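Hi support team,

I've been running sequence recovery on a batch of backbones for a student project. Most finish fine, but this one hangs at about 90% for roughly twenty minutes before it completes. I'm not sure whether the input is malformed or the queue is just slow. I've pasted the structure tokens below so you can try to reproduce it. Let me know if you need the job ID as well.

Thanks,
M.K.
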């Protein structure tokens, strides 16, 4: 069992987050408890609450890291095609989102599975992770359709993300092919949805 003075507060916090990520990926969201984390790192449950306020706090720390990883994935993929036109950049962003969700399924799903009950923990820092993702989409949309005003741009950004997210989560939950004699290729569906959406956006502006 770890002693309080074995690690600094920051070190212990990092240990808690790393252990939580490991449990989430290897055992699933349902097994992620403070008791299980404490056992993993060799500390008492009480020691965990020296560095996290509650389970909401822990999940927001985990989800913030996941959102940052997602943003980095998108930016790296976009950088590979440094001179992509707005349409192609938006398509690549959508496909990068799908790739990330399938590769990091447990982490990605945890963002949407956990319901935060302590709203005071929803800080500007956390929201900025989400805004940064929307900025990538919004910037490319503004290049694709420069006549869009700010409100239209924000609505279409969220709408486009929502469409890609919806296809992705249904595919991961294996609900897309229910009642259909065929299996759907997630990326092909996303490409179709995004292509039609972008065509409509271009023509309305």
């Amino acid at each position: 069992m770890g002693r309080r003075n074995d690690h600094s507060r920051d070190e212990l916090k990092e240990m808690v987050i790393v252990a939580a990520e490991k449990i989430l990926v290897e055992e699933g969201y349902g097994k992620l408890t403070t008791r299980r984390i404490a056992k993993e790192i060799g500390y008492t449950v009480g020691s965990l609450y020296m560095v996290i306020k509650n389970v909401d706090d822990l999940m927001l720390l985990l989800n913030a890291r996941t959102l940052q990883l997602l943003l980095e994935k998108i930016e790296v993929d976009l950088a590979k095609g440094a001179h992509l036109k707005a349409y192609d950049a938006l398509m690549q962003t959508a496909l990068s989102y799908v790739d990330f969700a399938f590769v990091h399924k447990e982490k990605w799903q945890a963002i949407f599975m956990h319901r935060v009950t302590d709203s005071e923990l929803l800080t500007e820092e956390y929201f900025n992770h989400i805004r940064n993702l929307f900025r990538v989409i919004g910037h490319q949309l503004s290049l694709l359709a420069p006549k869009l005003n700010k409100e239209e741009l924000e609505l279409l950004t969220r709408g486009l993300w929502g469409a890609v997210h919806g296809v992705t989560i249904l595919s991961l939950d294996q609900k897309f092919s229910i009642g259909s004699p065929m299996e759907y290729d997630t990326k092909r569906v996303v490409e179709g949805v995004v292509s039609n959406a972008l065509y409509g956006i271009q023509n309305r502006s």
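--
Follow-up from support: It reproduced on our side and the slowdown came from queue contention, not your input. The chain is about 70% helix and 0% strand. No action needed from you.
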